[in-house]
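Hi C.,

You asked whether I'd gotten around to modeling the 174-residue construct. I have! Everything is below, sequence then structure, no commentary in between.
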Amino acid sequence: MDHDGRTLPTPLSEAHEAGFDYRDGAGVDFEPYSHFLDSAEIAEWWRAWTGNAELDGSEFRVFGQDGTGGLAAFWLVRHGEPIEQQPVVFLGSEGETGVVAQNLWVYLWLLAGGFGPWEATAYPDHEHEPRTDERLAEIAQRWAPSHRRSANEVIAAAREEFPGFEELIGSLCR
């Protein structure tokens, strides 16, 4: 039982435990957390990132970062839905933003396809060389067999469903 609200969904924990292949910058730049950041950490980061002291970032559940400190999170936009059904977003250290997957289930397939949150946000304008990760594909197949998609399909569907995410985040910044 998750008494403190910081426990990751089991499929996400398993994916994090499998690890990510950085491959000297050609792979996945992702440092997963073993638990969600607590609300005080999120509020401090969100206020600094947006320059807006009135915000607390409570609409995000942060679960990892890239090497520069950009954060991956669930965006709690689907009211009343469990965290597994919330979209996954990336909020980069240099202001990059993007919805990278519509939910946890397709996010697992994104990871299996050799993409992390930053790579999905920067796609297709980066030098990333995606490689299928068989360990992560096994996890995705076990937890989300009916949600199988290519990384390109996952990214395109997320962008199509949430086309105004970047503008929304930009409007919150001071």
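If it helps when you're writing up: The chain has a mean pLDDT of 93.

Thanks,
B.
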